[in-house]
Specification:
two-stranded parallel sheet, 43% helix, Rossmann fold, 2 domains, elongated, two-stranded parallel ribbon, 5 helices, 134 residues, mainly alpha
Length: 134
């Protein structure tokens, strides 16, 4: 494909959800070629490289597909949501919370909660270490 611009997507909740769920993301050109040639065409040539807000491609969708599906997008990450919504990508707080929690992240409501979770994780790590070395 000569037009590399078509391998970029606008940043949207759908793209973020697709990356978080390890879905293969293709350009609309893949569908056009599929209909045009009446057969499945090479998906790799039509794979979305990233969103159009990046100056340098970071291959987010491709990297996400290469990660084992048992690893979640927000695994071991605590998030505190301090805004009401993002109009640029049409994401409400409820949808963002769903994305975070279905990808094994945690929503926290105050900083002391985060410190508690970090200390709890550290405590379990120390106990595991001590147990393994007994």
């Amino acid at each position: 494909m000569s037009d590399k611009h078509t391998l970029r997507s606008s940043l949207s909740i759908k793209l973020i959800e697709a990356i978080a769920n390890h879905y293969f993301c293709v350009s609309y050109r893949w569908l056009i070629d599929y209909i045009k040639y009446d057969r499945i065409v090479d998906k790799d040539a039509n794979e979305i490289e990233g969103d159009d807000t990046d100056y340098h491609s970071q291959d987010g969708p491709k990297r996400s597909c290469s990660i084992d599906k048992c690893h979640s997008f927000f695994e071991n990450i605590c998030s505190m949501i301090k805004c009401t919504k993002n109009n640029d990508i049409k994401m409400t707080n409820d949808r963002l919370q769903d994305l975070i929690t279905t990808s094994d992240g945690r929503i926290i409501t105050c900083m002391t909660q985060e410190v508690y979770l970090i200390n709890l994780k550290l405590l379990f790590s120390v106990k595991n270490y001590m147990y393994q070395n007994d």
